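Progress against Task 2.4 (sequence-to-structure conversion) is shown through the following example record, which the project officer requested during the mid-term review.
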Amino acid sequence: SDLSALDEVFKCLEDGRAAGHTPTDTWSEVLLPLVDKSGQCLDLRWPDYGGEQLNSVFEQREISENWRSRLVEADGWMILIRLESETTFDDALDQLVERASDGTAPSARPNTWDANANAKWVELIQLLLHVSGTGTHKRLEKPKLAVLLSCYDEIKNPQDTPSEVLGEYLPLLSSFINSNWSSDSFSVWGLSSLGVPLTPNDTNDDFIDEGPEEQGWVISPEGGEQDEDLSKPLAWLLDV
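Structure tokens generated for the chain above:
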């Protein structure tokens, strides 16, 4: 396997530091030969691309051929969302009640609908469905959808299931997914790939001592204990 695309990431993790983001114009693949629990061999071609490409799709309403061909061919999609970094607005009715009770003035808010993560994610998924030629006249069986709530160690209510957490943070997106996918064709997972927050400039000695391979965990759609097997969402998506 050629892991050269991940060299900088490995170096940062060895030093107990957070790795930088993939450059915007990057598009490559990392080949990972795998064997499933039944002994079947498969090649996982993990894409490495700049996350800003998705922002560009949303802002420009335009999708490159690289994206289009993969969307058309894919039987499943995996979406990663860091909830704590998403911009959301309080419910307007709740704000009116709160202001009426304490006498505070309305607070300023951006005048663009695009700033709201609820609207952004729903419209982005609609764009991807349109480009892939997938209609929503009935609940979707394909593409299967795995939503991974990344940096799950930041979540304040970890006792809730990941689906409940998504509904609390992004209720419009949660409702959209539940309305358009069949219940057995989508799943929501909590993911903490490193287990702890890291920064680019400060080293975490405990992280170095224990090693990155011992840190990460996922929370299954049903909730419960942390599971060290980070491949669980992928195994669900591939049905292996």
